[in-house]
Amino acid sequence: MEMVSAAKMRRAISAVQAIRPYAHSSWSVLTNLARAFTEYNEGLLNIREVKSVLVVVVSTNRGLCGAYNANLFKKIRQEIANPERLKLNRTISRKIESKVSNENLKIDFITVGKKGDAMIGRLRKNIIASFPDLAYSPKSEEVRPLAKIVMDEYLGEKYDKVVVVYTDFVSTINQQTKIRQILPISRVDIEKQIAEMDSHAQELGLKIPKLEYKIEPSPNEVLEHILPRLIEMQIYHAIQESNASKESARMIAMRNATDAAGEMVTGLTLAYNQIRQGKITQEIAEISAGKAALEQ
Predict the structure, then answer these.
(1) Contact call for residues 232 and 145 (beta carbons, < 8 A)
(2) What's the mean pLDDT in 148-161?
């Protein structure tokens, strides 16, 4: 199982590394466009007071991956117990704080992976959709139904904010659980997510625009076509990062299990030899004692 997980991990890491250049460029275009047209406050850039939140949870279908799902569950419980961060709404140029009480804040979930269903079920929260098939290296077009639900629910004003909880792949032995705002589009979360990808994120010029955009036919029409694709990309990237983290965690867990089994075998073999040697010594002592008794 360790070797199988290692092979899957290499494929997952390759998939993550393959989409990072596109993620870099697309978020750079988005932040520069939104910065250039800060007066655009409609659709997916519309900012509202947060009264309801939709959380996309990226988990796994199976266990045997160490503390991967446990850390994810811990992060979700912390956010629900203290939802001040969930109530804060940030966009490209400004932020708004919600006056809704923690008890009245509505929090619903979309789950990716069967373990996420079990987690949210224990919290007794509402799951509006579940995508177990996306937990294993999905293609970009397979993420579109999930992204469509997210965007439709936000545009219909059923939810005022959408976030994704996923596990960021840092290295084979280091995976970090993250929560990022998807809607409304947040410059802070975009820059954090890109900065987490690699050390070359600063070359994108997210703080100082390198390009001046001239938009035809109009900024509104261009943003209406670009923003949905970028939302799909952000969700797809979160799933791919989680997939690489999952396989890395599973490989480490299987390696630890193999090492623990080896230590157990060594310990049991030593105990067996000690007991066997004790019985042999006892039999020799009994034979010697019997012989001595006969000679008397």
Answers:
(1) no
(2) 90
Residue written as token pair 């400004």: 94
Per-residue pLDDT of 208-252, as tens digits, reads 445 566 667 766 777 778 888 888 888 888 888 888 888 888 888
Q: Which residue has the tokens 């010594």?
A: 281
Q: Is 226 exposed, middle or buried, given 0-12, 13-18 or 19+ CB atoms closer than 10 A? A: middle
Give the chain's domains with CATH numbers: 2-253 (3.40.1380.10)
The model's confidence at residue 128, banded by pLDDT at 50, 70 and 90, is very high
C-alpha to C-alpha distance for 36 and 39, rounded to whole angstroms = 9
The residue among 17, 65, 50 whose CA lies nearest residue 247 is 65
Residue ranges of alpha helices (H) inside 135-218 are: 144-155, 187-197
pLDDT at 55: 92
Structure tokens at 234: 């952000």
Question: How many CB atoms sit inside 10 A of residue 120's CB?
Answer: 23
The partner residues of 112 in beta bridges, in order of sequence, read 58
In order, the DSSP letters of 25-37 are HHHHHHHHHHHHT
pTM of the model: 0.77
Query: Edge-to-edge strands of the sheet including 127-130?
Result: 127-130, 106-112, 52-58, 161-171, 174-183
